[in-house]
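Researcher: Let's do a round of design. I'm pasting the structure tokens now; please hold your answer until I've finished.
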């Protein structure tokens, strides 16, 4: 048979040649007709940092053929396209909408198109977008009040492995956390700052505190404003933390962090669990190009050690579930809906455990945070209408380990915690905002935004207290505080806001931010009009150096716990000499809520009634920023804030009666000089270095120390002095460096002054002036590092999960070391002059290692 075929081939070679040519032509035409093209879009900001969650439209002949969003690296890819000329449109809230038409040829390599996004309120001559060229960056920052941004991927790589938004904030200049876990933002406590998630206010209606914040895995970006001169921001006197959450992508992604618990080893022996914090994140499309889903959930069991106490009575035990769910529905090219649900129940035993307060003296607590939001975005023409509905519920219970009376001594405290609380608070917020298309006239280009909203809040609960005994070192009774009266409280409040703002581009080198905000809070009876003004300049011809300055008036809301003060039990104080004889008292202190006199300002109106408080601050800033090279950007800034009308609690005599007076007379002052340098190179490698010189002074007796979830047991006279988190000098450096063998190194360095402290006598009174510069903890230094290596493993996981997943997943192994130099950073001090160890710092957190595993699909 083969012989006959061979003979036929030789004899008919011309026929075979023709057949071969015909087949080749047919095959080539088929290949040409089936040839496809790919486009990869890359989006970045003016610092060449990737911008995620950018909407990318792909149009052909004016018709929308595909719609996607960029991932964390600022990229998105369209495959299986026919070669043609496509129009690419990129858009994101807060940035200019850009587009370009690009001819895409069919080949095996995707055509890369890069966009450098420019904020909407930037001064500019012209925005040029060029394919494969992202060097045409406009150097001006966003308006007169830009935010300091922190991306999710940046935070997750840090050695501290932050779990929530709250954990990430101390990475930013001007924000510090005390050893007790309290956050201070530009000199003010949490209750003086605003926390916004996707435009919704999520602070606790009762206390103004942040509470449980969103899991870091559900975050897209965290923006911190020192002084936003945009009138849309309000209800704060310190700073604003604005969080943008993460939406689902075009493909399903799964990530499992810290699946294995951390065990406790003592003396070379296993002694149970120390910590478990598994986190699961998954997101993707439920219906392609229509409905997207994102879920982040964390369970955390933590046993925090107090090193100055012996095992097993040296641990606070806390348990938390933190879940954030988001749905994004693309109804049409002009309309989208976003719905989120944040659920965060938590509880803790032996809270605030330390050397002086052993387990029996500490409280337990249980808290539940629930927040649901629905946001509708509708585009008509070049205008954007945004509507928001938000519901916040925050409940908290605090109780003692037993019913014994609490006793305070110079060396240690004993008995049981004196306070018990039950609190339920709720807030419903409605908000409408419209951003208009730019308007041109002789003054320049106007970018106008208007909005208004209504907020309804309520807070009900009860506050109970048991006696407190103050004894000296020999256990002799010096003072006894008893409590009488008190009743359950039930408060409601309504707020109304209106605002209007304009970003005016006068010319390519000058822009103005101007606006005003109207607020009214019914429970205080105060209404005010709040003006703000900002200026941004490019003074030099190279359009590189940017100067920003501004002045603003910022009013804060009054949390509902403040207005419940008259329902709290009153104190009855009796003092004794060393023989046990009464030398003063019993003296009953009335709970009095003061009123503020009528304002001379035409912009503020208040009713003449108790509790008509209206805390406010006047702030001005000046800042200059310059990119010295493509890899180095330097920013210098100064801030001056003066706060007035703060709510403080102070023992006083009113009409010959003893009283604890809650007044609106508090003041504080904050000054900050900041130098920040950002060094980036080689892809995602960067280092952020900052030095902050600041002073924070004010009244110590702010209401949150006594009317919060864990009130102080003794009310001392108020002092105007250094505040708790005053740090004259602080240097901070962190970032990401790639080492050989695919290892990533995330260093974190902090050097600062120690926090100020106060000295007490045997009767728990201040000795001298508290918190002065001469009484500070030792200077703090810490070098933390995290070393990470990803190991990719081929596996057809789509067959396991029956989902369209990638065929590669990674196992991330990381080793972290804390306080590498083993520097002496004591968290505790013997500060009572009647204590034999007075002046001794102790409780050192020594060098520690941790091993983590993550699984990334």
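Researcher: That's everything. Go ahead.
Model: Designed sequence:
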């Amino acid at each position: 048979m083969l012989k006959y075929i061979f003979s036929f081939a030789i004899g008919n070679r011309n026929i075979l040649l023709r057949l071969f040519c015909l087949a080749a032509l047919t095959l080539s035409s088929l290949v040409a007709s089936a040839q496809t093209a790919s486009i990869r879009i890359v989006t970045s900001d003016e610092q060449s940092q990737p911008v995620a969650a950018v909407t990318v439209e792909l149009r052909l002949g004016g018709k929308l053929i595909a719609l996607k969003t960029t991932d964390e690296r600022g990229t998105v890819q369209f495959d299986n396209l026919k070669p043609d000329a496509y129009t690419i449109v990129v858009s994101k809230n807060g940035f200019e909408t850009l587009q370009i038409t690009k001819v895409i040829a069919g080949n095996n390599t995707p055509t890369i198109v890069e966009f450098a996004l420019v904020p909407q309120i930037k001064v500019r001559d012209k925005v040029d977008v060029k394919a494969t060229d992202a060097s045409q960056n406009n150097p001006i920052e966003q308006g007169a009040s830009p935010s300091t941004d922190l991306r999710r991927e940046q935070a997750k790589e840090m050695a501290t492995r932050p779990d929530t938004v709250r954990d990430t904030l101390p990475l930013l200049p001007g924000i510090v956390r005390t050893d007790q876990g309290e956050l201070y933002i530009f000199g003010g406590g949490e209750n003086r700052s605003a926390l916004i998630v996707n435009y919704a206010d999520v602070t606790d209606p009762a206390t103004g505190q942040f509470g449980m914040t969103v899991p870091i895995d559900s975050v897209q970006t965290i923006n911190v404003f020192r002084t936003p001169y945009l009138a849309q921001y309000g209800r704060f006197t310190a700073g604003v933390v604005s969080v943008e959450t993460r939406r689902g992508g075009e493909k399903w992604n799964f990530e499992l962090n810290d699946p294995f618990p951390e065990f406790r080893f003592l003396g070379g022996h296993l002694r149970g669990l120390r910590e478990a914090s598994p986190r699961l994140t998954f997101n993707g499309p439920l219906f392609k190009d229509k409905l997207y889903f994102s879920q982040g959930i964390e369970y955390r069991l933590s046993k925090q050690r107090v090193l100055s106490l012996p095992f097993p009575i040296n641990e606070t035990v806390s348990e938390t579930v933190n879940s954030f769910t988001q749905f994004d529905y693309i109804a049409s090219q002009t309309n989208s809906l976003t719905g989120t649900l944040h659920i965060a129940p938590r509880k803790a035993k032996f809270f605030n455990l330390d050397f002086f307060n052993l387990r029996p003296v500490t409280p337990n607590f249980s808290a539940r945070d629930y927040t649901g939001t629905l946001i509708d975005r509708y585009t008509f023409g070049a205008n954007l209408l945004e509507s928001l509905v938000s519901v916040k519920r925050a409940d908290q219970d605090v109780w003692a380990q037993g019913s014994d009376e609490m006793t305070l001594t110079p060396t240690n405290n004993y008995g049981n915690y004196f306070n018990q609380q039950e609190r339920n608070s709720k807030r419903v917020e409605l908000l409408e905002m419209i951003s208009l298309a730019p308007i041109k006239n002789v003054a320049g280009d106007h970018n106008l935004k208007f909005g208004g909203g209504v907020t309804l809040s309520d807070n009900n609960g009860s506050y109970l207290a048991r006696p407190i005994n103050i004894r000296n070192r020999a256990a002799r009774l010096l003072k006894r505080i008893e409590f009488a009266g008190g009743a359950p409280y039930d408060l409601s409040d309504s707020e109304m806001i209106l605002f209007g703002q304009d970003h005016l581009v006068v010319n390519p080198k000058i822009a103005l931010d101007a606006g005003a905000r109207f607020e009214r809070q019914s429970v205080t009876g105060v209404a005010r009009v709040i003006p703000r003004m900002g200026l941004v300049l490019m003074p030099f011809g190279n359009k590189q150096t940017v100067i920003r300055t501004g002045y603003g008036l910022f009013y804060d809301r009054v949390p509902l716990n403040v207005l419940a003060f008259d329902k709290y039990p009153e104190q009855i104080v009796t003092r004794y000499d060393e023989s046990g004889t009464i030398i003063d008292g019993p003296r009953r202190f009335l709970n009095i809520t003061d009123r503020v006199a009528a304002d001379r300002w035409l912009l503020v109106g208040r009713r003449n009634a108790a509790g008509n408080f209206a805390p406010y601050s006047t702030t001005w800033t000046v800042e200059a920023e310059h990119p010295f090279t493509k890899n180095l950007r330097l920013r210098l800034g100064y801030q001056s804030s003066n706060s007035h009308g703060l709510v403080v609690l102070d023992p006083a005599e009113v009409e010959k009666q003893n009283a604890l007076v809650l007044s609106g007379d508090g003041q504080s002052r904050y000054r900050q000089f900041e130098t920040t340098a950002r060094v980036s190179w080689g892809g995602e490698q960067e280092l952020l270095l900052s030095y902050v010189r600041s002073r924070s002074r004010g009244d110590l007796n702010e209401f949150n120390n006594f009317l919060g979830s864990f009130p102080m047991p003794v009310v001392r006279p108020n002092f105007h002095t250094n505040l708790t988190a005053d740090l004259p000098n602080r240097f901070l450096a962190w970032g990401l460096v790639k080492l050989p063998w695919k290892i990533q190194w995330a260093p974190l360095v902090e050097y600062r002054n120690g926090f100020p402290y106060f000295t007490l006598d045997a009767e728990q009174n201040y000795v001298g002036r508290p918190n002065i510069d001469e009484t500070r903890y030792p200077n703090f230094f810490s070098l933390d590092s995290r070393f990470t290596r990803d190991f990719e493993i081929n596996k057809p996981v789509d067959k396991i999960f029956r989902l369209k997943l990638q065929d590669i997943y990674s196992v991330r192994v990381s080793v972290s070391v804390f306080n590498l130099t083993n520097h002496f950073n004591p968290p505790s001090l013997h500060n009572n002059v009647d204590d034999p160890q007075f002046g001794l710092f102790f409780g050192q957190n020594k060098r520690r290692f941790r091993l983590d595993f993550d699984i990334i699909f």
